[in-house]
Write a structure and sequence with these properties.
The chain is of the alpha/beta class and 455 residues long. The protein folds into 3 domains: 85 residues, NAD(P)-binding Rossmann-like Domain (Rossmann fold); 209 residues, Mur-like, catalytic domain (UDP-N-acetylmuramoyl-L-alanine:D-glutamate ligase, 3-Layer(aba) Sandwich); 133 residues, Mur ligase, C-terminal domain (Protein-Tyrosine Phosphatase, Chain A). The strands form 3 sheets. It has a 9-stranded mixed beta sheet with strand order 7-8-6-9-10-11-12-13-14, covered by helices on one side. The protein has a 6-stranded mixed beta sheet with strand order 15-16-20-17-18-19. The chain has a 5-stranded parallel beta sheet with strand order 3-2-1-4-5, sandwiched between helices. Helix 6 runs parallel beside helix 10 and helix 6 crosses helix 11. The longest helix is centred in the middle third of the chain and has 16 residues. The chain is globular. The structure holds uridine-5'-diphosphate-N-acetylmuramoyl-L-alanine (UMA). Uridine-5'-diphosphate-N-acetylmuramoyl-L-alanine binds next to helix 1.
Length: 455
């Protein structure tokens, strides 16, 4: 397999950690490049999917844990995003061996421009919009990363450009990744079971920008308080050119909302995009669109293409997806809401004081502070139905609305149906991860859809 840059992988002893989507693909890729690969996972061998294919490719598998000696003898260790590397094992490994993420390895191999998107929420929507704009304009684009496609799949075809959705996990073990254009959408609390503090999480998000140079661009939400304060704290963005966007202020150059339009001022031009006609709802989605416009104008994408894209985009599954309306009650699947920030944003889209939302929330707790939801829940929710491991913690948060517990999603939907009246919305807005009851957020959303369709 050919890579764009001249990096020797052949003959190298490489350990791949984690055998999910990322690790499995990375192991096979490295093996095809001639590396001597051993992959390790904490799971027992019997639970590793794709084991046969890996073994057939000559890849060694060490299951049931990570053995220190294996790491010590390697030339390179490549970690999957879900693997924590602030442990003793990795501290010791780093003394002799480089530890990188698959995204870092990938960025060392390619020589086409990288566009990268991060933020706590809205990453996939923004990435999908940018993907649509760039492919509509004829660019042979690869889109991957946290969106569910391992970055190294880039090499499966001849691509001109690469678009990556990057999570904080994927930004942890990078050192040279340098996006030509980066987009930083928002930062609110998430993954507090992985980071020691919110500050650490903010620092990781800002790593996206650390290698950018004068000719690169950062499209950044200056309307986001945490981002704005961090920019002020840092005094500058480093070297890249800043293209701010905000739904609250009007920057001289940048993207803002004015008189019912998204206004983009860049490169001596002013472009207008009427908000009317946009089919995805909520201020957060306007922000996602603004970020995508920012990236597109920096890349010189034609205005007509940008317009085609933003006015035809209908949103993604599991993100405020209207499943069905039954007897005047709307059932909305927002299973992708896996943190308090996204749940807060979703609820803010409903009128305050009217309390027309029956909210199904809960799931696996990620160490979040649920009290930030108090005002928005108390002013919009008529009944709170709690599911999953976080149920008790949510119940003790001190919401003033009527709260009940359900033992399954099915029971929660039935309770919602009994209590909802015409004009109400039943919202699956977990605000938590899904792994206590489901495989992932998609599985949770699909189950909700099936239950609602069966009502
Ligand atoms: N494992 C170990 N050792 C550990 C920890 C985990 O061996 O210390 C093993 C697990 O047993 C499992 C494997 O690692 O077999 C799982 O690896 P992983 O958690 O990195 O998951 P992948 O299947 O490789 O998927 C990852 C991303 N997952 C996470 O970041 C948790 C996917 O993002 C991403 O789409 C995919 O790579 C392709 O790039 C998902 C996600 O939930 C959507 N992301 C989080 C989010 O969006 O909030 C960050």
């Amino acid at each position: 397999m050919m890579a764009g840059k001249d990096i020797v992988l052949s003959g190298k002893k490489i350990v791949v950690v984690g055998l999910g989507l990322t690790g499995t693909y990375t192991s096979l890729f490295l093996s095809r490049c001639g590396a001597d690969v051993v992959a390790t996972d904490v799971k027992p061998a019997s639970m590793i999917e794709g084991r046969e294919e890996l073994e057939k490719a000559g890849i060694g598998i060490e299951a049931g844990g990570h053995r220190e000696e294996l790491f010590m003898g390697a030339d390179l260790v490549v970690v999957s995003p879900g693997v924590r590397t602030d442990t003793e094992l990795f501290k010791k490994t780093r003394e002799t061996t480089e530890v990188v993420s698959d995204v870092e390895l990938f960025s060392r191999l390619i020589d086409v421009p990288i566009i990268a998107v991060t933020g706590t929420n809205g990453k996939t929507t923004t990435t999908s919009l940018i993907e649509d704009m760039l492919t509509r304009s004829g660019i042979r684009l690869f889109a991957g990363g946290n969106i569910g496609v391992p970055a190294l799949r880039f090499f499966e075809a001849d691509h001109q450009m690469c678009l990556l959705e990057l999570s904080s996990f994927q930004l942890e073990n990078i050192s040279t990744l340098r996006p030509r254009v980066s987009a930083l959408l928002n930062i609110t609390e998430d993954h507090m079971d992985r980071y020691r503090s919110f500050r650490d999480y903010v620092e990781v998000k800002f790593r996206l920008l650390m290698n950018q140079k004068e000719e690169d661009h950062v499209v950044v939400n200056t309307g986001d308080r945490v981002i704005r304060e961090e920019l002020e704290r840092r005094g500058s963005m480093g070297h890249a050119l800043l293209l701010p966007f905000s739904t609250e202020e009007e920057p001289a150059e940048g993207i803002c909302l004015k008189d019912g339009n998204i206004v983009c001022r860049y490169g001596g031009r002013e472009r207008l995009y009427p908000v009317e006609g946009i089919r995805i709802e909520g201020v957060h989605n306007l922000e996602n669109i603004m970020a995508a416009i920012g990236v597109a104008v920096v890349l010189d994408i034609e205005d007509e293409v940008i317009k085609e894209s933003i006015y035809s985009f209908r949103g993604l599954p599991h993100r405020m997806e209207l499943v069905r309306e039954i007897e005047g009650v709307r059932y909305i699947n927002d299973s992708k809401s896996t943190n308090t920030g996204s749940l807060k944003r979703a609820l803010e889209g409903f009128s305050a004081g009217r309390r027309r939302v029956v909210l199904i929330a809960g799931g696996k707790d990620k160490g979040m502070d649920f009290s930030v939801l108090r005002d928005v829940v108390d002013s919009r929710v008529k009944l709170l139905i709690l599911i999953g491991e976080a149920g008790e913690k949510l119940e003790n948060t001190g919401f003033s609305v009527r709260t009940v517990r359900a033992t399954s999603l099915e029971q929660a939907v039935f309770m919602a149906r009994e209590n909802a009246e015409p004009g109400d919305t039943v919202l699956l807005g977990p605000g938590c991860a899904s792994f206590d009851m489901f495989r992932d957020f998609e599985h949770r959303g699909n189950c909700f859809r099936d239950i609602v369709r069966g009502l």
